[in-house]
Amino acid sequence: MTRRRIIAVILILFGLGLTYFDLSSLRPFKLGLDLREGSHLVYQADTSALPTDVDVGEAMASLREVVERRVNTFGVREPLIQVEQVGIGGSGAHRLIIELPGVTDVEEALKVIGVTPVLEFKIERPDGPEKEAIKKAIETARVEMAKGGAITPNPLLAENPDFIPSELTGRYLKRAQVQFSSQSINPTISVEFDQTGGDIFAKLTKENVDKRIGIYLDGELLSAPVVREEIKDGRAEISGDFTVEEARTLVRNLNLGALPVPIKLVSTETIGATLGQEALDRGVRAGIIGLLLVAVFMILWYRINGVLAVLSLGIYVSLMLAIFKLLPVTLTVAGMAGFILSVGMAVDANILIFARLKEEMRHTENMHDAISHGFSRAWASIRDSNLATIISALILFWFGTSLVRGFALTLAIGVLISMLTAISITRTFLLAIGVHHTNRLNRFLFGSGFST
């Protein structure tokens, strides 16, 4: 008995320590964008343009990494960037969700995220009928434009008469840097490819010795050096009439990386500091009022059991908030709703236990046996109901949008922790009281409602 009471005191002290940690500023809560100021951007990804041999999931993960690098250069503190699929299977749409805390200038954010330097390496088109046909089509279109007439549609107009696109693009770029040479007053840009890009570049240079390779940026020809020999180290040099500032800007954009998947902005939302604080205040107020009402009901209806349940519930809330801080879990309005709902689930487990305990006290005079049997026989119902809730939360997290996932995550964590507090902590408190007999007074004190 003394051992159980010591454990009960330790649990209470543990709960007080958690409460102090929750209220302190040692580690602040990570708040979602709807609870603080910032910008919320939603992009639609066009995965139909991807080659058939490219995995969509890997492409979206690569897209997330590229955008994250861009956002980091923007200086945003703790950005939230995630991909989500709306729908199931191949028909599902893929989206990129970007939350930028503290950023209310959406236009500036869009410039950083949307910049897409398209770096292309094209091989020289050989002389022949095809090249002449393209030149003729372009000249005909130029004459028609000069006369003010409509241009005759011709697929050859989309072709470059001098160069043919190759598979080497900025997608394989590893790094770029500005270089200065004593032979030129203008800076040059050195680019280095990854292993795959290096192999492609080596093949291109080997097959095009004494030919030009056109280096294009955003569709404009920067330079067209002649290949003297095969280049095996995966390095190339871009020259042009760059100023130092232009070269640095270009290198920065190239190092950010080209987007592996085309994206289109579908929605933007800016949340001011006032609205975010108001949503946070309302959520906290709703949680406190809900806890107080539950505590009053439990104490009035379940008497001593209710008091112990409220103690257990207080430890549960403190433990949950500490977990939110330590993981950390990004708290949103939907996440707070999931947390408040999990409080109800924790109370529900205690109600099942107390109802079973009341029945057991009618059939035995040993209070310890009544408590043990009450908990063991209520466990099956608690386990099954909580397991069903966890499965539902996992389904919501897997298939839901970012808003639904916050709700599902906090609900699942809350249900798991509630089983611990309901079964272990409440049971420890009941046994620590040390009541031995189920007489009429004890049946009233540990019963519920208006009957013993």
- Total E-strand runs: 13
Pick out the low-confidence regions: none
Shape: elongated
Radius of gyration: 33 Å
CATH superfamily of the largest domain: Multidrug efflux transporter AcrB transmembrane domain
The CATH class name of the largest domain reads Mainly Alpha
Number of helices: 11
- Quickly count the domains: 3
Kindly estimate the percentage of residues that lie in beta strands according to DSSP.
15-25%
> What is the structural class?
alpha+beta
Give a verbal description of the structure.
Strand 3 and strand 4 form a beta hairpin. The protein folds into three domains: 2-33 and 272-445, Multidrug efflux transporter AcrB transmembrane fold, CATH 1.20.1640.10; 38-116 and 263-268, Alpha-Beta Plaits; 119-125 and 162-256, Gyrase A, domain 2, CATH 3.30.1360. The protein is elongated, with a radius of gyration of 33 Å. It has helices spanning 2-23, 56-73, 106-114, 129-146, 195-207, 244-256, 273-326, 333-361, 367-399, 402-433, 440-445; strands at residues 30-31, 38-45, 80-86, 93-101, 119-124, 163-169, 173-179, 188-193, 213-217, 220-223, 235-238, 263-271, 330-331. By secondary structure, the chain is α+β, with helices and mostly antiparallel strands. It is built from eleven helices and 13 strands.
